[in-house]
Amino acid sequence: MEELLKHLPKIKIPGPNNKIYKDECVFSFDTLLSPSGLYVSLTSFLGFGVDHVLKYFECTGNAVFLHIKAIKHEVKVDKSEDGPDKKITRLAIGTPGGFNPDAQKYIYEEQYQIVILPDYTTYSYPNDDLPQKVKDSVQAILEAESALKIAEKEALSNTWDGEARSITKHIDLPQLNNGKKIPPSGWKCEKCDLTTNLWLNLTDGSILCGRKFYDGTGGNDHAVAHFQNTGYPLTVKLGTIARDGKADIYSYDEDDMVEDPNLAAHLAHWGINFDHMEKTEKSMIELELELNQKFGEWIAMQEGTNKLTPIYGPGYTGLINLGNSCYMNSVMQMCFIIPDFIERFVNKAEDIFRQNINDPANDFSVQMAKLGLGLLSGKYSQQPKSKVDADDSQGISPRMFKNLIRRGHPGFMSNRQQDAQEFILHLINILDRNSQGQTNPADCFKFKVEERYQCSSGKVKYTYRPEYLLPLTIPMDMVINKEEVDAYEAEKNKSEEGKAKLDPNHVVRPRIKLSSCLETLAKVETVEQFYSSALNDKTTATKITRLASFPDFLLIHLKKFTVKEDWTPVKLDVAIEMPDLLDLKLLRGYGLQPSEELLPETTSAPLPVVYDQALLSQLAEIGFPIEACKRALYFTENRGLEPATQWLMEHISDPEFTLPFVPPGMDAKTDSSDFVPNQEALEMVMSMGFTKEQSTKALKATNNNLERAADWVYSHIAELDTLEMEVDAQPAKPQYKDGNDKYKLVGFISHMGTSTMVGHYVCHLLKDSQWIIFNDEKVYLSEKPRKELGYVYLYQRLDK
C-alpha cells in the first residue's frame, strides 16, 4: 500500500457539482464493455481508454484510477413463460424507463480494480485494506450519476421526446353545443374508412384520421385539413386516453404535443369519462420508436430487393442514432471524407488532446478529433467473430460530441428531428469560432457569390458575399416526364377510389435535370425598388447571380422544403437527375468588364428607408424574422399586411431571407460607430457577468443575435478579458479557394419523410470507387444508390 499512500494527497472525493465521466473515454469511444475497460481518475474524475490513460498520467501526474470493466452475459429466456411486454415509455437510451432492446437478452457484470500508473500496479476492490479516502472516492464515483446521463436528461427536459410537454394556451377552449356524444369504442374517420390513428377535435367533436407517417402508414391527413378549414386547434388521439388522465394531445396552431389541465372537462363535454377508458393504441412516442426500429429493412428496400452487404474497417464506422440525431450523423460522416477535416483534427489529434488535457469533454476540437479518429481508425468497425458479437451494435455513440455541439442552440438541444442543411451551417459557424489563428477546415466549402446589378441608367454595381452551400430552387415547370407522371397520378387516384393499392416499389416522380436548377439560378432577375446612385432615386434593375470562386468541395442544397398556397409546409417529392461529373462554367462570374461603367460612389445621403412600425410589429408577431419583415415592407412599399405577408411566403426560401437587410443598390454600413446593440439583448448578455463593452462587442460580432452572442462570449473569453474600447481594426478580407469549375459527385445526404421535423437521414459516400450507404450504425455496400432522391450533395473539384 506504500505506493498508493504516496499519491493520497492528490486523490479527491467527488461532490454533487463534480462531473464524472465513467461511461466512456473522453478521447476515444472505449467504454466499460471494451476489452480493456475504462480508467476513471480519482483526481479529475475523467475516464480514459487504455490508449490514452498513460498519456494523461504523463501530462498531469495524476496516477490513481478506478478501473471498471463490464462483462456481458447472455440470459437464457424461458419462452414458455408468458408475461406482459415492458411498456416503452421514453425515447431516451440509458435513462430510467428508457428503451433498451437488449435488456432481456443480456446482463452486465461490472468488475473493479484500483490501478496506479505508470506500472499498472493493481489492488482489488472492494478491499478493506484500502485507505478510507480511496474507498470514499470510489464509492462516490460508483454511486454518482455520470456526466453523460446528466447531459442527456437536461436535453430531454421540456422536449416532446422526453414526455415533458408544455401546457396548451387553449385551457379555456370554446366547445360547440352541437349535441354530439362520442361512444367509448367503434370509432371511424368521418372522411374515410380508417379506424386507427384517429383524433377527436375537442371544439366540434369531429373524429378524423391523422397525418401519414414517413413510411407510408398512418392516416390520410383529414384531421389537419379540418383544422385548416375551421381553425379548431386542439385534438386528442382516441385510443390513448387512459383512466390515469393521460392522453396524446396535439395543438395545431401551437404545432406541438401539449398538456391540457382541463382535459377531463373537455372530454366530458363529448360524453367521455376517464374512468371508463382504457389505452388501446400506441402513443406517438411508441409509434416513433416502432417506426425507427424498421429503418434498417426500409433502407434496404430503397435499393431494391437485394440484401445489402455490411462492410467493416477503417472509414466504415457507423454512428449510433441518439434520439433523432440521424441528421447530425449524416453530416459528420460526410465531413470526415474531406482532407481538410482529416488534417485539422485527425492528423493533429495527439496535439489537440495534450493541449486540452484538463477539460476535454468541453473542448470542441477534442471532440471533433475524437469523432474523426473513431470514424476512420477502424477500431470500432470490426467484423463479428461470434453470435454474441453479432448481436452487439456496430458503430460508435457520439454522445459527448452531440452534447457539446448542440449546447446553447434551442433547436439542436431538443431530441426532435432537425434539418441537415441547417446543421451544416451551425457546424460551420462553430468551426469558424473555434479556428482563431488556425486553419478552418470549413474553408474548403466557402465560395464567393457575385451579384451584378444594372439599373435603368445603364451603369452597373457588383456586390459579393461568402456562402458555404449553393441553394438551388427546383423549377417544377421543367419536368421532363410530365406525361408519365400524369398517367401515374390518374392511376393512383383511381386506385384510391377503388381501395386498391399501387405497387410501393413502383413510384413515378416528376424528373428534373440539375441543369434546369442551375439555369434557374443563372437567369436574369428583375429587381424593383433599386436605389441608383446615378439617378439618386429608386428605379428598376436587372440582377444576375454568378460564382466568383469555386471551392475545393461544393455543397449543393436542393430546396425541397417549401410551402403551399395555404402556407402549409410541403416537401417536393421529385427526382433530380444529378450527374456524376458536373460542369459549372455557366455560373462563372468575371467581375467588371471593360465595356461596363460602375455606378458612382454615393456622395449624398441615400433615400431614407421608412418602415411602417405597426406593420413591422404585426409581421414579427406572426413569427417572421425581423430582417425578413423589413424586406417585405420595403418591396411592397408599406402597402399593408396582406401584400407584405404574401411577399414573405413567396421569398421564404431566399438564401438572404434572415440576413440583415440592405436595400438593393445601397451599401451596408461598415463603420463600427453605426452599430447599435439591441437593448434587451445587451442587458441579457450583461446579466451573464460581462461588461457593457464586452456585451456590445459580442452582439456586434453576431449581428445582434442573442443566442449566438451568448455562445460567442464564452468562446472569446481571452479576447474579451483584454478588451479596451479602441476603434476596431479593419477586419481582414475573407480568403477564398478557387480553381477549375468541373466537379465529381462524392457524397449525398438523403431525407425520407414529409418534413424536416420527421423522417430519417442517410448518407451515401464514394469510397475506393464504390458507393457506401451510412444508415446510422449500419454501414453497407450500396447496390443501387438513389442519387436522384438526395437533399444535400457534395461535389469535389477536379484538378483538370
Automatic annotation (TrEMBL):
Pfam families: UBA, UCH, zf-UBP, zf-UBP_var. Keywords: Hydrolase, Metal-binding, Protease, Repeat, Thiol protease, Ubl conjugation pathway, Zinc, Zinc-finger. It comes from the Eukaryota. Residues 317-798 form the USP domain. InterPro entries: Papain-like_cys_pep_sf, Peptidase_C19_UCH, Ub_carboxyl-term_hydrolase, UBA, UBA-like_sf, Ubiquitinyl_hydrolase, UBP13_Znf-UBP_var, USP. GO terms for molecular function: cysteine-type deubiquitinase activity; zinc ion binding. Its EC number is 3.4.19.12. Zn(2+) binds at C189, C192, C209, H222. It is an enzyme of class 3 (hydrolase). One of its GO terms (biological process) is proteolysis. It catalyses: Thiol-dependent hydrolysis of ester, thioester, amide, peptide and isopeptide bonds formed by the C-terminal Gly of ubiquitin (a 76-residue protein attached to proteins as an intracellular targeting signal). Residues 610-651, 676-716 form the UBA domain. The active site is at C326, H760. The keyword Translocase does not apply. Residues 159-274 form the UBP-type domain. Belongs to the peptidase C19 family. PANTHER family: UBIQUITIN CARBOXYL-TERMINAL HYDROLASE, UBIQUITIN CARBOXYL-TERMINAL HYDROLASE 14. This is Ubiquitin carboxyl-terminal hydrolase. It comes from Ceratosolen solmsi marchali.
